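All the exercises in this workshop are built on plain-text protein records. A record pairs a protein's sequence with a compact description of its fold. Read left to right, the backbone structure tokens trace the chain's path through space. Once this layout is familiar, the rest of the handout is easier to follow. Here is such a record, shown just as it appears in the course material:
>
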Amino acid sequence: MENFKECKLNGLCGGCLHQGVPYEEQYRLKNQQVLDLFDRFHVDASVYQGMVPAETPYRYRNKMEYTFGDVEIGGPLELGMHQKGRFMSIVTCDECQLVPEDFNRILSATLNFCREREYSFYHKKTHTGLLRNLVVRHGVRSNEVLVNIITSSEEGFDEAGYVELLQGLELDNTLVGIVRTFNDSLADAVIDEGTKILYGRDFYYEEILGLKFQVKAFAFFQTNINAVERLYSDALNLLPDIHEKTVYDLYCGTGTITQLMALKAKKVYGVEIVEDSVEAARHNAELNGITNCEFLCGDVRKKLDELTEKPDMIVVDPPRAGMHDKVVHMLCRYDIPEILYISCNPKTMCMNLELFKMNGYEPVYMKTYDNFPMTKHVETVCLLSNRKADSHIRLSLDMEEYYDIMDKEKAEQK
């Protein structure tokens, strides 16, 4: 583990929870928080294999989303992260240790470019202004960099000058694309209302465990490539022999683990609600010559009803909010031997595990991964085994009827 370094924005930048804390202490705190959750939600901690530490707490992020703004009203233009405890204030983080140095170089050059031209930033209250966000992405295996500057449709941005500026930077990696996304939405989020390629292409390439992936500007992709390879390898080793078996991969994103499982399984169905991610998954399956996986775009609750082929194995990797209770019941009704749960939020996973237990599924193996040092986030792999008894079956049906009634009442209230 590298020597501890002090960030100049310690206490100011809201991007890191544990900045200023030695890594060994971060690790201890995060592992204890997981154990506390197990205790709170009555999860059997005896099957917990512990937390896998980070390989390094530095330079691991392959994507950063920065915001334009100021620290004080009327102050100079800033580009970086929201200030801790002051969401309307932005602090420039041009020496961030979590990202490749190229990200800091691109941020500094972009900020100077915009300051010199006296561009305004988009005000959340008045909904006026030009500059909104800067998103930088990096292919760890390909050494490619993709830059996306997000602005309103207000005129005046010097596109040619910006391209010339970035092309003239001395970078460790290869700049393969510069795009400009237009966003006039009132929401405080990066929303694609039209993207224009200013230079090169609107995607970069990445590799995970030997498979190649094309990652477009807005596609979800794993943030720490080295760490996710380790996690996926461990998760795949937990699966029983899936040769000639049908697998569901729910909340599959761009289909990374879907395709890895398809190398052995008879058929893998990936379900994902984000259309851009599904399109990327289909393209990447074709890129890798994989023909035995099929991707469905839509809400998991609805798409499960459309799948007629019963699974032999189910893998879920839900967003931070976890799975809807109805989805848990639907999965338990397949009555298959095991379900593999990959989680980016141990709290919502534990909430789901309570309901799985009511339906006869209990954890037999759990391991956590500190894939995002300096932050609060923890990844988990959990293998659930079917220990369902007859008494659980009636309970599952009763709870299903209960949630149908609750959803109906909510709809009527609206």
Residues 389-399, 409-414 have pLDDT under 50 and may be disordered. The longest helix spans residues 390-413.
